[in-house]
Amino acid sequence: MSEIEVGSVNKYFDKIGVGMIQVTQGELAIGDTLHIKGNSTDLTATISSMQVQRQPVQTAKPGDEAGIKLDSKVRQHDKVYKVTA
User: Fold this and answer.
1) For 29-49, what is the mean pLDDT?
2) How far apart are CA 28 and CA 58, in angstroms?
3) Does the CA dihedral 24-27-29-35 come out positive or negative?
4) CA dist., res. 29 & res. 82, Å (int)
5) Tell me, what DSSP letter sits at residue 47?
6) pLDDT (0 to 100) of residue 85
7) Residue 55: domain span
């Protein structure tokens, strides 16, 4: 499997378990697998729900800041990669 960098984490909301991801290239969609890496982060997650500007969406494009439900904590500036087959 290969990975393509698609953006970075801007913020993480502990109480609701949502990471805000700034999409810089490529596209994210429901069902995509992400690999989030940072100094102390190494997480693989599948996108089950996503919002842009507090509205549910199926895809996020470059320039969007997507809120994605995550099971584990991520940190600001962690790199986000889309896993491809």
Assistant:
1) 96
2) 8
3) negative
4) 10
5) -
6) 79
7) 2-84
- Which domain CATH number covers 79? 2.40.30.10
> How long, in residues, is the chain?
85
pLDDT at 60: 98
How many C-alpha atoms does 81 have within 13 Å on its Cβ side? 15
Question: Residue 27 contacts by C-beta under 8 Å, 6 or more apart in sequence?
Answer: 6, 59, 60, 61, 62
- Tell me the pairing of strands 50-52 and 55-56: antiparallel
**Is 10's pLDDT higher than 90?**
yes
- Tell me how far CA of residue 40 lies from CA of 27, 34, 64, 68, 74, in angstroms: 25, 16, 25, 19, 9
Q: Residue 1's pLDDT is what? A: 80
Better pLDDT: 74 or 1? 74
Q: How many domains does the chain have?
A: 1
Which tokens go with 50? 């996503």
